[in-house]
Amino acid sequence: MKTIIFGLGNFGISLALKLTETGNEVIGIDLKMEKVNLVKDKIAHTICMDATNELAYDSIPLKDANLAVVAIGENEGAAIITTAILKKLTKAKIISRSLSPIHDTVLKAMGIEHIVHPEQEAAEKLTSKINLKNVIDSFNIDKNYSISEIQISEEMSGKTLQELSFRQNYNLNVVTIIRDCKKTNLLGNKMQKKEVIGIPNNNTKLQKNDILIVFGNNSDISTFGAHLAG
Q1: Mean pLDDT over residues 1-26, rounded?
Q2: What are the residue boundaries of the RCK N-terminal domain, all occurrences included (predicted)?
Q3: SS3 state of residue 219
Q4: CA distances from 2 to 9, 22, 102, 222 (A)
């Protein structure tokens, strides 16, 4: 996917690097050359330009982009103007960062459907980690239910989900399992990496260091995490 990111602050740079790592072609744009220089050798292409100047857009391959992300985080006015220009010039999907409730209102009035709040979302994610004991990571479905990653205890290793009566004892559904697997690379060197094993059943036997991906009520996830922590 070809993505153009406007704004190379902490959020913009992190997003650009992650998208690049996962096989996307990323163009990063910022008004400040020092920010452009930080990632110029790490992503497909970088451009120093004023994103609030509509005439400057002639120099970027906007028509080839699948996605445009407005990640500007220092200037609310510039973020809104940039989004408005993109709305006018491209049919690509637009994701815009919001800096305030008023910013939210303006973006919605412009017809922007995909609005992100990086700081708020990071705080909510950290809160979930703190509240859901022994949880590695968690994704909230709503205020009551989550999908969470939980490291099993040594006592659970070698037992099947049926032997553990997992659903009955913990009131959680195991969606899948992330497991350490040994692989041999092209040079013949053995390496260990984590892989998803697919959809488990009652006869699936847990192994040491397995990470369970579970779905359920937050209170049940917290109780299970507390049980593992002893």
Answers
A1: 92
A2: 1-116
A3: helix
A4: 20, 12, 30, 40
Residue 149 confidence class, pLDDT cut points 50, 70, 90? confident
Q: How many structural domains compose the chain? A: 2
CATH number at residue 177: 3.30.70.1450
| pTM greater than 0.70 | no
How far, in Å, CA of 101 to CA of 172, rounded? Answer: 36
Digit-coded pLDDT (tens) for 157-195: 999 999 999 999 999 999 999 888 776 655 667 666 778
Last residue of a domain, one of 118, 137, 156: 118
26 vs 17: CA distance, rounded Å = 8
- Provide the 3-class DSSP secondary structure of residue 2: strand
b/e string for 67-90 if b means 16 or more Cβ within 10 A? bbbbbbbeebebbbbbbbbbbeeb
